[in-house]
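Q: What residues go here?
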């Protein structure tokens, strides 16, 4: 065993996780026709959906891991019918952004979001802004909001977290933690596809087929990028007790990507009162709630919550997180 230990130490000294290099560019964040330019000169392509009449609210949507802004096409089109303007952007490292597949520098995803909201809130005074995050996007929102509570209380009205990625190491089995630790130190550029795991992300088979055909959806993921995501999930779960604004958490009982246990742990830590958190549980929902066959219900519930025409049922939390349900 001591030989194995020495080999592991030697290999850990040879390989390090790779991330996108920090930029030396400094510009004023601004919107262009189809991209947002961040303070370090990085372009984030976006999709913009505008209602025909004055918007009652605005949404900034953050996609999940290996996905991109197309994930919210159906959602944003549905929101427009409720007079909710919607912007969905490709987070750096995903979609049509530069250095796709490499994890961004520490804290940069959160800075990108903060700059986005700053520019949008200046251009739309009086229109409440909501953040919507699916999976990894939800984790980015949780971590961003924990870093500057007063800023977010001033600039946004609330957040919607759809199956947020909070599967932190503290909730993972030991063999997953150690296998990632070893892999990222021995072959960080290895790109497993995840095929053969048998994970069903949605009941919408046509949507899953479209994702497989889409070249902008990443199919093979670098191990060091998975490492970056795992670090983000650690911070997201740890940040869940510091949500400074109202929140709505959405989760499907058939989610095979983010287990129920960390979701319930997150909900148990979230504040009540100021920064009230509501919860909706979908018995037939999978991980990709925005692509599921019942997505229209998710869109309607979200829009009604933002426009304050819907109240949530407290029994949903008991149904999802009772001890016999968690397993």
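A:
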């Amino acid at each position: 065993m001591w030989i194995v230990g020495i080999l592991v130490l030697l290999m850990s000294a040879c390989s390090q996780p790779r991330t996108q290099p920090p930029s030396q560019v400094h510009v004023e964040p601004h919107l262009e026709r189809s991209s947002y330019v961040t303070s370090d000169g990085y372009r984030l392509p976006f999709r913009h959906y505008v209602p025909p009449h004055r918007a009652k609210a605005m949404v900034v949507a953050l996609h999940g891991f290996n996905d991109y802004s197309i994930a919210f096409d159906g959602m944003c089109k549905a929101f427009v019918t409720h007079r909710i303007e919607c912007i969905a952007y490709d987070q750096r490292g995903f979609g049509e952004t530069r250095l796709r597949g490499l994890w961004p520098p520490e804290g940069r995803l959160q800075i990108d979001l903060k700059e986005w909201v700053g520019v949008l809130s200046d251009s739309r005074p009086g229109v409440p802004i909501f953040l919507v995050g699916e999976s990894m996007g939800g984790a980015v929102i949780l971590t961003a909001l924990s870093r500057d509570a007063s800023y977010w209380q001033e600039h946004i009205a609330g957040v919607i977290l759809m199956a947020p990625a909070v599967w932190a190491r503290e909730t993972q089995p030991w063999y997953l933690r150690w296998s990632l630790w070893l892999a990222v130190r021995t072959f960080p550029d290895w790109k497993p596809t995840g095929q053969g795991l048998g994970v069903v992300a949605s009941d919408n088979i046509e949507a899953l087929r479209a994702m497989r055909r889409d070249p902008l959806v990443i199919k093979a993921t670098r191990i060091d990028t998975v490492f970056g995501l795992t670090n983000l999930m650690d911070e997201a779960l740890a940040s869940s007790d510091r949500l400074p604004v109202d929140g709505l958490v959405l989760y499907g009982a058939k989610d095979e990507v983010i287990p129920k246990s960390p979701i319930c742990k997150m909900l148990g830590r979230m504040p009540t009162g100021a920064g009230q958190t509501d919860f909706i549980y979908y018995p037939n929902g999978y991980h990709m709630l925005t692509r599921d066959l019942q997505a229209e219900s998710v869109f309607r519930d979200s829009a009604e919550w933002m426009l304050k025409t819907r109240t949530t049922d407290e029994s949903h939390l008991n149904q999802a997180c009772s001890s016999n349900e968690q397993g």
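A: Context that may help when evaluating the design: The domain at 22-326 is CATH 3.40.50.1820 (Rossmann fold). Residues 1-7 have pLDDT under 50 and may be disordered.
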